[in-house]
Amino acid sequence: MLPLSGGDYSYLHEAYGKNTKKHKTFGNIPAFLGPIPSFLFAWTLTFVMKPSALAIMSMSFATYALAPFYPDCGIPDVVLKLTAAAVILVVSGVNSYSVKYAVRVQSFFTYAKVIALIIIIVGGIVNLANGKTEYLVNGFEKFDDEIETSFSSIALAIYSGMWAYDGWNNLNLATEELKHPRHLVIAVLVGVPFVTILYILTNIAYFTVMSPEEVLASDAVAVTWADAMLGVMAWCIPIFVAASVFGAANGSVFTAGRISHVAARNGRMPELLSFIHARRYTPSPAIILNGFLGLLMIIPSNIEGLIDFFSFTGWMFYASTMTALIVMRWTRPNFKRPIKVPIVLPILVFIIAIYLLFAPIVENPQIEYLFAVMFVLAGLLMYTPFVYYSVHFDASDKLTILGQLFF
Questions:
Q1: Which of 129-138, 315-324, 359-368 has the lowest mean pLDDT?
Q2: Distance between CA atoms of 20 and 145, rounded to whole angstroms?
């Protein structure tokens, strides 16, 4: 619908952030309130969600890349974090240097990911042909007494499960850089089912070799599978999986810079973040900020906690974006829509997002959810003086000039 970069930010901005005779918002929202949803989205993604996603992927890369070197003991925490930091520096450097190189890196490591999954899937097919279905038949039956089926535990389980598929909307963050924007829809319609099928077959392949206990106990499931299945060639799987995670980190950095860049372009973030490198045409300041915050995020090294935090705040804004799509069906009925989905689809996603947001809080309230909401709302402390009232400091001009000289 919108040929603009920024993904969810652009939709929230169009639905609620504009209030002119040409562009009406829902119910003529007051000038103070209108831009808040898009600003809080940009604030949260820039300072939490994208850096935490980068930290998660860099830590995962380090886990798989180092696993062959520490087969009988845990990976030292310092080594793990230094490796993760190196990944963040490399992918941030590549994306700051050249869009073309970043796309080539993405393509290369995507092929590596698919090759690794195909190796595992073929191994699973061979095992199924040989009748190795013991763990598939029994499944998790022995854990029936321990499995929680409350609304809260189901939502948390979905958080971790959906994390594997997150990124389906990343291309929407760089729409303006697509030569043919309609290819975005094709990429989503083809890519999401393809990835879903690959992941399901991969998990089936795991259970032809590994018991549920082994899967739960393993820090790197693909490595454990390779050790049991491939023998002397087991070393290739962690390399391929690490390459896959590296590609995912590269893609995350590529899109992260576009969010804060678009927000800054609309006056919602510091002007420095709207800059494009004069020769390389990359949003270098925004990419460097994302890398710096990602480095800070690897310090706690609690990946599960980061995933839960990332997922909770993510679904908060997915719900908001769905309301924006629904609202614009009434406020912009004549808006050109190259692709128009049935209204029931955003309504369904909104309902699911609301469930994933409130089920864990209502049934099992934890202080972490309060912290997540408080951080999102803390953006209002920045929005009110610096965006709505346009408070300006001379030091910001000096920083902007310095950025112009540097970038």
A1: 359-368
A2: 59
- pLDDT, one tens digit per residue, over 179-212 is 776 777 788 888 888 888 998 999 899 988 888 8
What DSSP state is assigned to residue 74?
Answer: P
From first CA to last CA, the distance across the chain in angstroms is 33
Q: What percent of the chain has pLDDT over 90?
A: 11
Handedness of CA 287, 292, 296, 298 (dihedral sign): positive
Output Rg (C-alpha) for the chain, integer angstroms.
Answer: 22
The span from the CA of 15 to the CA of 400, in Å, is 30
Tokens encoding 9:
């930010």
Q: Which amino acid is at 113?
A: K
Neighbours of 351 (CB within 10 A): 12
* CA pair distance 79, 333, nearest whole angstrom: 56
Local structure of 10: helix, strand or coil: helix
> CA 19, CA 28: separation in Å to the nearest integer?
7
Q: CA distances (Å), 201 to each of 106, 117, 140, 158, 174, in order? A: 23, 9, 18, 19, 31
- Judge whether 207 and 135 are in contact, CB under 8 Å: yes
Report d(CA 149, CA 127) in Å as an integer: 31
The burial class, CB within 10 Å (0-12 / 13-18 / 19+), for 154 is middle
91 token code pair: 């992918």
0.85 exceeded by pTM: no
Integer Cα distance of 67 and 258 in angstroms: 33
**Which residues, in sequence order, are CB contacts of 245 under 8 Å at separation 6+?**
57, 60, 61, 64
* Distance between CA atoms of residues 280 and 288, nearest Å: 14
